[in-house]
Amino acid sequence: MTPETTNSTYWQGVRAGAPFILVLVPFATLFGVVATEAGFTLLETIAFSALVVAGASQFTAVQLLSEHAPTLIVIVTALAVNLRMAMYSASLTPHLGRAPLGKRALVAFFMVDQAYASAILAYEKHPRWSVAQKLPFYFGAITPLVPLWLVFTIVGALVGSAIPPEFALDFAVPITFLAMIAPMLRTAAHVAAALVAIAVSLSLAFIPYGLGLLVAGAAGMIAGGQVELMQARRAEARL
């Protein structure tokens, strides 16, 4: 594998991750604002973003802490929100599982939704890429994302309430996930999982501490699995 080839996939990753900057900047800024308003110091806010690197679970944890939820509930809920990372890891294992341990550890630490979405689509599009090509693509995808996540967390923590309400930074949260999920809804199972999860989460919105999301996630996975099972049975019946 030549350095030119490796550099090529790295810059492809940078270009794939770059569009997410548009929603990551307000997303990170909003977290900085929310964290400081919840009572976090600047140092605590920075450490949270630098060590956790997981926007959705960070928002969840801060929200629950501001509601004085029990510590166990905060931990369990934040971990449950991040369970999708385990599914991401399983999905990437066939592609990156033979990489050196140190590099796999870096991939795991910097596992973010946007980088995963960019990487898995690229890997499926280029099935002949080697691990030496796939790794640079992944690290390229996180290059424009992770540093800006930390920088704009700090910006949000510093400016805090000085941001006018009409800026409505919270729009970035749903848009970020829509931008990642939409390209992945390629099969009936994917669509069924998404629709069931949405329906269940809305119907259980009254449950405190966002625990309805845990049920919704499980229901979505079960629905998707059932659709795949039915499709497999129909395919076998046609043989």
Automatic annotation (TrEMBL):
Domain of life, source organism: Bacteria
InterPro entries in UniProt: Brnchd-chn_aa_trnsp_permease
A Pfam family the protein falls into: AzlC
Biological processes per GO annotation: L-valine transmembrane transport
Membrane topology: Multi-pass membrane protein
A GO cellular component entry from the record: plasma membrane
Main location: membrane
Keyword Membrane: yes
Segments traversing the membrane: 16-34, 46-66, 72-93, 105-123, 135-160, 167-185, 191-224
Compartments where located: Cell membrane
Keywords: Cell membrane, Membrane, Transmembrane, Transmembrane helix, Transport
Family under the similarity heading: Belongs to the AzlC family.
UniProt protein name: Branched-chain amino acid transporter AzlC
Source organism of the structure: Pelagivirga sediminicola
